[in-house]
Please model this.
Amino acid sequence: MTVVEAVQGDITAQQVDAIVNAANSSLLGGGGVDGAIHAAAGRELLEECRRLRAGAWPDGLPVGEAVATGAGRLPARWVIHTVGPNRHRGQTDQALLASCFTRSLDVAAQVGARSVAFPAVSAGVYGWDAAEVARVAVSAVGDWLGSSSGTLELVRFVLFGEDVCSAFAAELP
Model:
């Protein structure tokens, strides 16, 4: 049985196989979680992301999609980059938000991860309410786990603030 939990903390310090990056479509770093992950991982992560842009994703990663890279200097083995919908740009479809979580889990399963840490994708600077993100994320993860025969042992939501962590904890069974 997979453990699903919510904790307040720093996603870059998590001792898990894969951490999920709330990336922008360029994959080349940014602010918030994306900037923190790139800063902690070091130059190796940026170089891998540049190779992805030069190869498989020349136009950038689409909203709701996910792709894995190595994790550079992070304690995790992989970083799974996903692009959340930006409510400020009119991207309000909950299915796109849910896809960030399910596609990230698909990629985690493909690389063989047994533990994954997620941030609150699209909350904050992308304008989504934390409680709405929590509801969509926990539901999407639960649905994925219910239909998967994968080997995930742990899905951890790692949230920066107490209010966001409380919103996620309230959604967990």
